[in-house]
Amino acid sequence: MASHIKVPPGGQKIVPGQAIPDNPIIPFIEGDGIGIDITPVMIKVIDAAVDKAYGGKKKIHWMEVYAGEKSTRLYGPDEWFPKETFDALKEYSVSIKGPMTTPVGGGIRSLNVALRQELDLYQCVRPVQYFKGVPSPLKHPELTNMVIFRENTEDIYAGIEWAAESEGAKKVIAFLQQEMGVNKIRFPLTSGIGIKPISIEGTTRLVRAALKYVIANDRKSLTIVHKGNIMKFTEGLFRDIAYKVAQEEFGAQLIDGGPWCHFTNPNTGREVTVKDSIADAFLQQILLRPAEYDTIVTTNLNGDYISDALAAQVGGIGIAPGANISDNYACFEATHGTAPKYAGLDKVNPGSLILSAEMMLRHLGWIEAANLVIKAMEAAIGDKQVTYDFARLMDGAEELSCSAFGDAMIARM
Ligand SMILES: NC(=O)C1=CN([C@@H]2O[C@H](COP(=O)(O)OP(=O)(O)OC[C@H]3O[C@@H](n4cnc5c(N)ncnc54)[C@H](OP(=O)(O)O)[C@@H]3O)[C@@H](O)[C@H]2O)C=CC1
Ligand SMILES: O=C(O)CCC(=O)C(=O)O
Ligand SMILES: [Mg+2]
Hints:
Blueprint: E1 25-29, H1 35-54, E2 61-64, H2 69-75, H3 83-91, E3 94-97, H4 111-118, E4 123-128, E5 146-151, E6 161-162, H5 167-179, E7 193-194, H6 200-216, E8 221-226, H7 235-250, E9 253-254, E10 261-264, E11 271-278, H8 279-288, E12 295-298, H9 300-313, E13 323-325, E14 330-333, H10 351-364, H11 367-382, E15 385-386, H12 388-391, E16 398-399, H13 402-411
Parallel strand pairs: 1-2, 1-3, 3-14, 5-12, 8-11, 8-12, 15-16
Antiparallel strand pairs: 4-5, 4-13, 6-7, 9-10, 10-11, 13-14
Protein name: Isocitrate dehydrogenase [NADP]
Family: Belongs to the isocitrate and isopropylmalate dehydrogenases family.
EC number: 1.1.1.42
């Protein structure tokens, strides 16, 4: 297969464990739908922040790599995720991507999920913070300040499922009935079947990462969100293992006989509470009592729902960033999808992808540039220079296009 990736001259590879070069090569996937609008704006804003922060001493060398619809146009109709793209994302370690389309029902499986699995990006980290002036349905949106650690490789996202009435579904149902004594499948002839693997290892490494984050960032609590009352051996296992990690690896002590527990942050002396909440109750609690929640650790599907719900509390998924992280690689991406009805209109909010890139700058240790991005975002929103999603809810705002919002940020750096 022909190669379409052009390595930018003058850039250097990021090598895990070594110092970040001043001229790193960062692969990016433009993304489907609104990817064509938001990705160039993100690059322009980040380049401006880096230039302003370091006066030309540091510079990202962007390298386009292809996946999704654009890749099928370049490589061939069935080439949704070419091997050379996976290889580049691994070889260059740190990358950023726009959203990619996943059809509902049939068709290709999620490319986003495939990427997370292929690179074993087991932590999906999604910070949810309020920017002053952003319209929100809450009276006190500033009380919502959470960081979600969503498991990113297991659960029903593993993609182990069989369509209703398929040979596979029939076989699995027969196995369950005949060999496992299952007699509770309500409509065995017409049921689709999905499998939900949740492991001790997968849960342990995620909770460990979340608690390390809590300690490094002096956060006050970790809430384990699960549906363990119903799915005892998957979601319930997740809860039990999370408490076990807190106790065995971080020295947490039971509060009043447990299961809640607490330990002292060794860096700051602050008490950290580790507690749990059942997912349905959690979704009403975050609306009614957001200040009681801080860092969240949860399973894959719960984390997907919680991400969009919490994003709405602070103004919507136009401003909801994220990172997919493993022990070796990091790929940054927004929480939202391809919003197809807005594709190519230069209309949507590029904020989520810009803030995802801001997380990437922090990951590289380029704190000054990251701070400039935040400052510029706050200033543009403060001046009511916003995209349609905020403008429709704000009095006296000027509605800007996607690209004009990027320019408004750059003008305020
Ligand atoms: N990681 C990824 O790549 C993801 C991919 N997807 C995929 O994206 C496709 C579309 O999914 P869908 O369920 O419509 O969800 P989307 O997140 O794409 O869009 C839903 C709605 O959210 C709002 N929205 C999304 N992005 C922005 C933005 N940048 N600025 C302002 N508003 C925004 C819009 O609301 P309004 O209509 O109110 O203006 C939009 O109609 C699917 O194929 C899905 O699988 C979904 C999520 C993540
Ligand atoms: O892969 C997809 O299409 C959707 C993924 C998603 O919603 C998410 O990761 O938040
Ligand atoms: Mg989602």
